[in-house]
């Protein structure tokens, strides 16, 4: 494809295969080797660049996605011989040893400080949680970002697609060494999407690509045509529809996290999304993609199950709505049909005063697939007994698991240790985990029960229940 884009303020028209990874395009075709490749699967952050001013993993981005965009790599940050303030702070504070992670760390820090010039150390730690460093130690890196803060001008205007479009001048032709027979198309609307899907049965959809591009690299997707949904505005955003919230399938996890409505009305979903992947994965990964991947470990699935969400499916000729249970058929299997997309997720608003909780146990804090997770949504009567309770576990069955027997046993009981403990043996018996690289089945049974055991404590520690006697928040 002929690809107009701006890289480090130089205007290019590249001739590259549409599925060329941006990290390869930068390093191999353009010689911009400051951008590093560590894992190639989104887990280390070494390949982070800025796309229209926002940090993005170049190993999980393909050429077609940067058409008309403005890319900044580590080579484009300094002003001649003068380092960017973040680069200078890394030098001054000894935040570099082997330097392999440094370009990615610096790009992530520049993004953070552009948006948010006054982050505290916790926010800095959180922002770089998708960037791994093997040798310096994070304290010096955090110190450097902390000290660079005052030198960054306030919230900057991020370069936009429109700015890139208008740009004139130099357009060197750069021809990539590789060829590919795979096509990638990014329609701007559903009207453009339907004819594409009709003409190409077997085309594979993607949105953020945080699952699909990993499968492509592993040879687990052979589709010749990939159709990206990220530019279709009608599939994005969060809206209210009477007593329901409607979340567009192409809404990213970062957008969900930033939305005050989600935080206020759906804390259980907000808590789950906050623990999904890393900030860099959340930047591009979407709720629709998480649903269609249908992993038993998918973090949005337990909250969507307790919220009793429905899935809106759309094709050129019909719309249908399915409950989550109808949509999810098993690991990696859904009821999505040829020519159909997930357009949105519809969620009834829980009653005000409901108690929400999501907890996941993984092998580390960021970038961890869950060993087991539990979403809970409860309503208490005035005397503190449970009026309604919905519980959904992740990673302990072929798909997200509700246990109506356990919910029924808890209704009418106080939310306390005694009554929760009484149902734990049944939980251990009813879950159906497998053993895999992350954990054994027996351990998962134990964790599934322990997550429920912790539920009253979690609400108490949130100060939503008074000591000894549960109360409404
Ligand atoms: C390093 C790393 C860490 C991760 N950590 C987590 C984690 O902690 N928890 C977790 O749950 N997930 C995690 N993931 C998985 C992934 O980020 C999520 O599942 C994400 O939500 C996928 O969304 P996407 O838009 O990137 O999907 P894509 O990769 O674009 O697509 C995934 C699948 O969904 C289909 N699809 C996408 N959108 C639609 C649509 N609207 N209609 C129909 N089909 C569609 C695609 O065809 C494909 O089959 C991680 C991934 C990586 C690489
Ligand atoms: S190379 Fe590790 S995240 Fe891209
Ligand atoms: S400085 Fe060596 S990996 Fe971070």
TrEMBL record:
<keyword id="KW-0408">Iron</keyword>
<dbReference type="Pfam" id="PF00111">
    <property type="entry name" value="Fer2"/>
</dbReference>
<dbReference type="InterPro" id="IPR016169">
    <property type="entry name" value="FAD-bd_PCMH_sub2"/>
</dbReference>
<dbReference type="Pfam" id="PF03450">
    <property type="entry name" value="CO_deh_flav_C"/>
</dbReference>
<dbReference type="InterPro" id="IPR016167">
    <property type="entry name" value="FAD-bd_PCMH_sub1"/>
</dbReference>
<dbReference type="InterPro" id="IPR036010">
    <property type="entry name" value="2Fe-2S_ferredoxin-like_sf"/>
</dbReference>
<dbReference type="InterPro" id="IPR001041">
    <property type="entry name" value="2Fe-2S_ferredoxin-type"/>
</dbReference>
<keyword id="KW-0560">Oxidoreductase</keyword>
<dbReference type="InterPro" id="IPR006058">
    <property type="entry name" value="2Fe2S_fd_BS"/>
</dbReference>
<dbReference type="InterPro" id="IPR036683">
    <property type="entry name" value="CO_DH_flav_C_dom_sf"/>
</dbReference>
<keyword id="KW-0479">Metal-binding</keyword>
<protein>
    <submittedName>
        <fullName>Molybdopterin dehydrogenase</fullName>
    </submittedName>
</protein>
<dbReference type="InterPro" id="IPR016208">
    <property type="entry name" value="Ald_Oxase/xanthine_DH-like"/>
</dbReference>
<dbReference type="InterPro" id="IPR002888">
    <property type="entry name" value="2Fe-2S-bd"/>
</dbReference>
<keyword id="KW-0285">Flavoprotein</keyword>
<keyword id="KW-0274">FAD</keyword>
<dbReference type="Pfam" id="PF00941">
    <property type="entry name" value="FAD_binding_5"/>
</dbReference>
<dbReference type="InterPro" id="IPR005107">
    <property type="entry name" value="CO_DH_flav_C"/>
</dbReference>
<feature type="domain" description="2Fe-2S ferredoxin-type">
    <location>
        <begin position="1"/>
        <end position="77"/>
    </location>
</feature>
<dbReference type="InterPro" id="IPR036318">
    <property type="entry name" value="FAD-bd_PCMH-like_sf"/>
</dbReference>
<dbReference type="InterPro" id="IPR002346">
    <property type="entry name" value="Mopterin_DH_FAD-bd"/>
</dbReference>
<dbReference type="InterPro" id="IPR016166">
    <property type="entry name" value="FAD-bd_PCMH"/>
</dbReference>
<dbReference type="InterPro" id="IPR036884">
    <property type="entry name" value="2Fe-2S-bd_dom_sf"/>
</dbReference>
<dbReference type="InterPro" id="IPR012175">
    <property type="entry name" value="Xanth_DH_ssu_bac"/>
</dbReference>
<dbReference type="Pfam" id="PF01799">
    <property type="entry name" value="Fer2_2"/>
</dbReference>
<feature type="domain" description="FAD-binding PCMH-type">
    <location>
        <begin position="177"/>
        <end position="352"/>
    </location>
</feature>
<dbReference type="InterPro" id="IPR012675">
    <property type="entry name" value="Beta-grasp_dom_sf"/>
</dbReference>
């Amino acid at each position: 494809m002929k690809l107009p884009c701006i890289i480090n303020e130089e205007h290019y028209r590249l001739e590259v295969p549409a599925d060329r990874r941006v990290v390869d395009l930068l390093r191999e075709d353009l010689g911009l080797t400051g951008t590093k490749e560590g894992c190639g699967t989104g887990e280390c952050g070494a390949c982070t660049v800025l796309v229209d001013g926002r940090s993005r993993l170049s190993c999980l981005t393909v050429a077609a996605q940067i058409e008309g965009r403005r890319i900044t790599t580590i080579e484009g940050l300094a002003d001649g011989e003068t380092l960017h303030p973040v680069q200078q702070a890394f030098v001054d504070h000894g935040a570099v040893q082997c330097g392999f992670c440094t370009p990615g760390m610096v790009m992530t820090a520049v993004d953070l400080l552009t948006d948010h010039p006054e982050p505290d150390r916790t926010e800095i730690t959180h922002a770089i949680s998708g960037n791994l460093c093997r040798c310096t130690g994070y304290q010096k890196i955090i110190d450097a970002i902390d000290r660079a803060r005052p030198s960054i001008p306030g919230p900057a205007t991020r370069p936009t697609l429109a700015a890139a479009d208008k740009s004139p001048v130099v357009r060197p032709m750069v021809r990539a060494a590789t060829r590919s027979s795979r096509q990638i198309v990014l329609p701007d609307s559903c009207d453009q999407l339907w004819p594409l899907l009709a003409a190409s049965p077997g085309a594979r959809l993607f949105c953020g690509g945080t699952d699909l591009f990993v499968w492509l690299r592993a040879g687990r997707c052979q589709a010749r045509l990939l159709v990206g949904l990220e530019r279709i505005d009608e599939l994005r955003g969060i809206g209210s529809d009477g007593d329901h919230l409607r979340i567009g399938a192409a809404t990213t996890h970062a957008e969900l996290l930033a939305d005050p409505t989600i935080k206020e009305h759906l804390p259980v979903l907000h808590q789950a999304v906050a623990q999904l992947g890393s900030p860099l994965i959340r930047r591009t990964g979407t709720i629709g993609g998480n649903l269609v991947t249908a992993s038993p470990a998918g973090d949005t699935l337990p909250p969507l199950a307790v919220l009793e969400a429905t899935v809106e499916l759309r094709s050129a000729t019909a719309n249908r709505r399915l409950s989550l249970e109808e949509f999810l058929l098993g690991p990696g299997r859904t009821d999505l049909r040829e020519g159909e997309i997930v357009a949105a997720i519809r969620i009834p608003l829980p009653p005000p005063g409901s108690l929400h909780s999501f907890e996941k146990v993984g092998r580390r804090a960021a970038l961890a697939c869950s060993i087991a997770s539990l979403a809970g949504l409860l309503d208490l009567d005035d005397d503190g007994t449970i009026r309604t309770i919905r519980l959904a576990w992740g990673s302990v069955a072929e798909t997200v698991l509700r246990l109506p027997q356990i919910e029924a046993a808890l209704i009418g009981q106080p939310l306390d240790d005694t009554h929760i403990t009484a149902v734990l043996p049944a939980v251990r018996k009813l879950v159906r985990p497998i053993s895999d690289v992350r954990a054994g089945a027996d351990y998962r049974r134990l964790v599934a029960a322990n997550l429920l055991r912790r539920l009253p404590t979690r609400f108490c520690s949130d100060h939503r229940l008074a000591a000894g006697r549960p109360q409404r928040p």
